[in-house]
Amino acid sequence: MGVVVSIEEGRPDAEASLADLVALVSGGMERVNAQILSRTGSDVAMIPEVANHLIDSGGKRLRPILTLASADLCGYAGIDGDVKLAASVEFMHTATLLHDDVVDGSDMRRGRVAARIKWGNEASVLVGDFLLGQAFRMMVEVGSLRALDILSAAATVIAEGEVMQLTAAKNTGTSEDEYLAVIRAKTAELFAAACEVGPVLAGRPVAEQEACRAYGMNLGIAFQLIDDVLDYGGTSAALGKNVGDDFREGKITLPIVLAVRRGTEEERAFWRRTLEQGALEEGDLETAHTILRRHHALEETVARAREYGTLARDALDPFPESPMKSALLQVVDFCVSRVH
Amino acid sequence: MGVVVSIEEGRPDAEASLADLVALVSGGMERVNAQILSRTGSDVAMIPEVANHLIDSGGKRLRPILTLASADLCGYAGIDGDVKLAASVEFMHTATLLHDDVVDGSDMRRGRVAARIKWGNEASVLVGDFLLGQAFRMMVEVGSLRALDILSAAATVIAEGEVMQLTAAKNTGTSEDEYLAVIRAKTAELFAAACEVGPVLAGRPVAEQEACRAYGMNLGIAFQLIDDVLDYGGTSAALGKNVGDDFREGKITLPIVLAVRRGTEEERAFWRRTLEQGALEEGDLETAHTILRRHHALEETVARAREYGTLARDALDPFPESPMKSALLQVVDFCVSRVH
């Protein structure tokens, strides 16, 4: 088992293998950030307040970075199509987070009080809608119907994934396939779309569009699986700080799915009481961790993530060697290695 | 003062002056309804359940009717661009209603239990997002970037209007201008966009696009003002059944704005207690009605609606006489005459 190194967003060691990519797109990201700032503007003062509360809170902006990188990988030489689509992708993601907080009843987001606590559920729903509208306006400005098609389809799939998750929520009988269908839709689809629009903008053949889409899709799955593991403190034997949110919210993630499948009847009763009925008692998180360790559920989830990481790396085979390609390969390692 | 004739959706007398328009677009609306049905489909069973709960509940579908009508008025002769944009407009409207219910905490919608009561706030938020995504997908299929621009801008403006309303909510100091800005954005903008895309599809000159937009915008304002009056039972001296929702929810509408402006200090204290503080007592709705009557606030609101109705009618001047034009003029009378 690995040693816990709690790697949170913004900490230097987390940036290590993202550094090359961040450096390569830094010029573009400055323009994306300016675009984001200007497009949250509104005469209705509450809109930039709520939007910037979340946007300024220091996410990695991995999705818009992927859009810039895939456009660059494919030789996009236009003026600002990549910047506008990257900002659109980030707005779609932000809108999803705002709506998610309402759906999950979350109190915290990115280490800050959730917008819905500060401004109410109403504001979270409506500012999310505003950002989604602005995302589509930016896409329309870019003028690529194919990019619009990809991103509007993604918006639909993400919502479907969230509803699927709602339906599967608190059901400890969720199968691995069902769980993968949920995270493909709710997380990986936006990674895939963010990467696919790059070659589309650059007017590259369908094969390259599919390659970039496959890279994003598999990276997104790996990313989410590692997130699931991190929520139980990584693969270390000990529980760290700030873990257990998924457990307390009764979320069924892959470690749970694996542990339930391999568990005894007594263990299953434990998962039903804690996750389905939410009847939590002192020491339950520690018990959950013990059961997960007993069945190697966290390590197996990491192993699954590594497989998807390999698929993501392989997807880039058609592209010739370049600093951008190397940087995109490193991102896969970064995502998978966050865990230990 | 007029006599109360409670005209609700679906009752024959309400259909009277919509009848010509409904007849003229009936073929197109059958295809719109088929489109709506097929686009609420999803492997995730909860999505069509929630969507159809609202969609089947018998709204007039005035907005998609306006899209078909304006396309026809302008001689659109394409295959199904009008049908898909009309379905998009209805999905945008339905998404707004689903999100509104969460924002307002409403228990009822169109005489049915609100979706959020039956399936939860989560489902209302997410199915709204799904429908918005599907709306954009249909627009992309139509392929008109200008129509996409109009409708995505409308999505943004509607969300802005809703946030504006949230900010103004329960503030009895709201001015008439502020209130009009809210209903322009949250209600009239979608009427305007629904009408504007007709001439756009038909490839007509900007002057006709602006004429159709102006028709929709002014019709939308008139429509909302009459809705405000109907919520106090129309202009009759007596209170009818099923009225007072706005009052109980503390909504500031034009009748209230006018009554507050003309009111005594005692009356203003009444509005602050009931609308701002929500400290309702037995008999308050009757008192509200008495004060509104004392200041002719309902009649004046109807008078304002008539003015906007006139602007809507005048906007169609550039178009030659035709059965469709006559039908669109009648719609204005229908909207304004619902009240007495």
Fold and architecture overview:
The structure is a homodimer of 340-residue chains. Chain A has 340 residues and is mostly helical. Chain A has one domain: Farnesyl Diphosphate Synthase. Chain A is 71% helix and 1% strand. A two-stranded antiparallel sheet of chain A has the order 1-2. At the A-B interface, α6, α8 and α9 of A face α6, α8 and α9 of B. Chains A, B: It holds the Pfam family polyprenyl_synt. Chains A, B: Keywords: Magnesium, Metal-binding, Transferase. Chains A, B: This is Octaprenyl diphosphate synthase. Chains A, B: Belongs to the FPP/GGPP synthase family.
What labels would you give this structure?
340 residues, mainly alpha, Farnesyl Diphosphate Synthase, two-stranded antiparallel sheet, disordered N terminus, Isoprenoid_synthase_dom_sf (chains A, B), Octaprenyl diphosphate synthase (chains A, B), metal-binding (chains A, B)
Helix content of chain A: over 70%
Percent of sequence in beta strands of chain A: under 5%
The class by helix and strand makeup of chain A works out as mainly alpha
Mean pLDDT of chain A: 90
Name the helix and strand elements of chain A from N-terminus to C-terminus, one letter apiece.
Answer: HHHHHHEEHHHHHHHHHHH
Oligomer: homodimer
CATH topology of chain A: Farnesyl Diphosphate Synthase
Spans of chain A of at least 5 consecutive residues whose pLDDT stays below 50 are 1-16
Number of strands of chain A: 2
Number of helices of chain A: 17
Q: Into how many domains do the coordinates of chain A divide?
A: 1
CATH superfamily of chain A: Farnesyl Diphosphate Synthase
Rg calc of chain A: 20 Å
The CATH architecture of chain A can be named as Orthogonal Bundle
Largest sheet data of chain A: 2 strands, antiparallel
- Strand order, largest beta sheet of chain A: 1-2
Distance between the termini of chain A: 9 Å
Q: Most extensive chain contact?
A: A-B, 43 and 43 residues
Silhouette of chain A:
globular
**CATH hierarchy class name of chain A:** Mainly Alpha
